[in-house]
Design a protein that fits this description.
The chain is an alpha+beta fold. Helices cover 42% and strands 35% of the residues.
Length: 97
């Protein structure tokens, strides 16, 4: 099974490169806190006027718990980063118990 699953990321190569870097950075941070089985990111885009609204659903599956986060923003990179940051904060909070 793959550790990372992306769905709905029909974006340009330049955007894929930036998103990949954001994911790798957060993957390292999350891995320091918690071993996990799979990280899933789902992108839903909807057009509002001339701009696109990006909705990111992030899901981190571990042996004992599943962490979820959802962020909506016009900036794709901010949405991905913020969703992963929410997951990281949940993992840190859970591991302190």
């Amino acid at each position: 099974m793959e550790k990372l699953r992306l769905s709905g990321f029909n974006i340009t190569e330049a955007e894929k490169s930036v998103v990949s870097n954001i994911i790798q950075t957060h993957d390292i941070k999350i891995s320091r806190e918690q071993d996990y089985e799979q990280l899933s990111l789902r992108l839903k885009k909807s057009q509002h006027g001339k701009a696109f609204l990006h909705e990111i659903e992030a899901k981190l599956e571990t042996k004992n718990k599943t962490f979820n986060a959802k962020v909506t923003d016009y900036n794709l990179f901010y949405a991905v980063s913020e969703a992963l940051e929410k997951i990281l904060n949940e993992v840190k909070h859970y591991s302190k118990r």
